[in-house]
Amino acid sequence: MNRIRYRFPRVMVLCIVLAAGCQRGKQSGSGIDPEIFAEIGRIPAIDNHAHPVRVAGKEGPDHEFDALPVDNMEPSSDPSHLRSTDSGVIAAWQALWNYPYNDSKPEHFREWQPHKKRIAEQKGAAYPAWVLDQMGVDVMLSNRVEMGVSVEPPRFRWVSYIDALLFPLDNSHLAARNSDRKAFFADEDILLHRYLSEAGLTTPPKTLDDYLKSIVTPTLERHRQGGAVAEKFEVAYLRSLAFDKVDRADADRVYNNFIGKPAPADEEYKRLQDFLFRYIAGECGRLGMAVHLHTMAGAGSYFEVSGANPLLMESLFNDSGLRKTKFVMIHGGWPFNREIAALLTKPNAYIDYSAQTLLFAPTTLASSVREWLEWVPEKVMFGTDAYPYSDELGWEESGWLAAKRGREALARALTAMTRDGEISRDRAFELARMVLRDNARTLYGFN
Ligand SMILES: [Zn+2]
Q: How far apart are CA 425 and CA 419, in angstroms?
């Protein structure tokens, strides 16, 4: 179980990635220690968080790469690295698709799309794994509603979604807050009904006791049996991360009085959500699944950044009943990179720096990576957040680019620590392996 196999051809591909990476490192005149950079290029990474898209087969195009797709939101200002004009997008196209241009003209991308499509068709069901090879990624933790043909173990490991079970009451008042929440709660209601129907029900049970026993626990157990290594909450898109400790009797009262009826006041409903969150987190610990949480500013113009501050979760980590649950704060908490570091001394708290690898230049990210490594290095993990953002920045391009920048940020942090006499080069190599691979292996019990 959980065996990660090395295969000879993949090692060869990694060598090619390494050679290309070294050349690019030299070209950028980056001041990175070449031995550290080379070592980092050789390590087959475990990507702690991403959204691979499966090959369209009998089931048609893939819609299960996210429980809350962010493609139908009110306009907001895109971060510059997500725009198709970003030089990294051009570099990804050149590396992956032999894009012959050195610019991001829309007509050039359009002209070259059939070439990309042809490569994908030639690879068939092996295409997603081929993308991982280009990224230098051995195993990708795949945050998806469901897995499927072409995104399957051993290269792809499932991280399922569980937010929908926090919201069993009438969500119309929460949804009325803004247009983004309206779309999100509609998606969560659909997912809740999917989980109900998988348990043989069409409506939630009449009591909290039944809801926990016949829906919540069986859904978690089904995910675990289906191969999930973690449950993901993107709840920061739906409410704040402040989950108070709530008495069972209080939660019973809210659920039993309001299920199937108009919802109570938001504060009262929140108490039920808080109870359910801690219940699910406890069950994840029992079942050997980690809990992944989106901790970062999020997409869309209505996202409440202050509610995504990881410090809001401190009482959760301090809950003695949840010390067996491993909480992974996904995306490194930006703009709360320093606050999140302080939480790493909690025995049940971990971080990855996915998404920041795409959204920030390696020099910017390197200072945060250094700080985390100076604090609790065995809790820090590499990730990409590969995601189908646009026609120009698909999961393939965003994954390739984030992997490249994520490796460079790590190389810069370790170079600086070595040059300042803080660590030896051997320790730099060891830290590189930990961040790119070994910390995740230990956390998830991969062999
Ligand atoms: Zn994500």
A: 9
- As a whole number of angstroms, the distance between CA 155 and CA 412 comes to 28
The CA 296 to ligand 1 mean position distance, Å, reads: 10
Instruction: Find tokens 């949480």 and name the residue.
Output: 293
Token digits of residue 363: 């020099």
Token pair 């795949």 in the structure block, residue: 142
Q: How far is the CA of 48 from the centre of ligand 1 (A)?
A: 10
* pLDDT tens digits for range 103-127: 999 999 999 999 999 999 999 999 9
| Pairwise CA distance, residues 6 & 20, whole Å | 21
The H-assigned helical ranges of 292-390 are 314-317, 337-343, 356-359, 362-375
pLDDT 10s digits, 416-432: 999 999 999 999 999 99
In 158-292, which ranges are continuous DSSP H helix? 172-175, 179-198, 208-211, 217-225, 248-258, 266-287
Judged by DSSP in three states, 274 sits in helix
Residue 365 identity (one-letter amino acid): L
What's the predicted TM-score (pTM) here? 0.92
If you search the block for the tokens 């949840």, which residue do you land on? 322
Report whether 398 contacts 356 (CB < 8 A). Answer: no
pLDDT in tens, 248-294: 999 999 999 999 999 999 999 999 999 999 999 999 999 999 999 99
**Which residues have beta carbons under 5 A from ligand 1 (an ion)?**
385
Which residues, 6 or more positions from 170, have their beta carbon under 8 angstroms from its beta carbon? Answer: 258, 261, 262, 263
